[in-house]
Predict the 3D structure of the following.
Amino acid sequence: MATGPTYVSSTLKGNVIVVSFNNTGSGLSAKGDTLKQFAIAGGDKKFVWANAIIKGNTVEVWSNEIAAPVAVRYAWADNPMGANLYNAEGLPAAPFRTDDWPCITKPKL
């Protein structure tokens, strides 16, 4: 295995987005006490920092501020300080986003 966890899909369960990965190796792990750099948004497309926990080879992401989440992002920044999702072999997860909303740096056509 030459890569860390990579995003595959996400499903909505109530107010929680469950994120599935490839390249989990012997399992997912967090370096530190809690997962960091996860953000979640509702239909208004406004992201807030989110809670996230590892459940097997998935990560469950939620925020009490978002009753009906529609998108999640992980380490979605130029220099995502504190991103700490890894596989058990010590390889870091790749940044990802589940939305396809235009970014503010994307030119309007």
Summary: DSSP finds no helices and ten strands in the chain.
